[in-house]
Amino acid sequence: MLVFLALNAAMAQGKKEVVQLSGLVVAGDNDLGIPGVALYLPKGGRGVVTNQYGYFSVPCLAGDSIVISAMGFQKQYYKVPADGRQSISVIIYLKEDPYQLPTVEVMPY
Known about the structure:
Blueprint: H1 2-13, E1 18-27, E2 38-41, E3 46-49, E4 55-61, E5 65-69, E6 76-79, E7 87-94
Parallel strand pairs: 1-7
Antiparallel strand pairs: 1-4, 2-3, 2-5, 5-6
């Protein structure tokens, strides 16, 4: 029984802790939330989208990387710190990506 408990404790040390990451995604020039921003966890194969006010909440593992992307903004990455906290609140500032599409002319022929 003692050997089983020792093995169980040794295996538990290698597991990462679950962290509840929540926060607000805003544009860099103001404090208004951006709706529809995608937050994707590549290792977990899942993600969330911000609500109409720019808020989000997602469970993830300590040490995970999160990809944050939205139309018209530069893609960013966030690494969840592994400092033992069970919940983390963040404000993520996205930078605009001024990319213009080429002009399309519609001709009658």
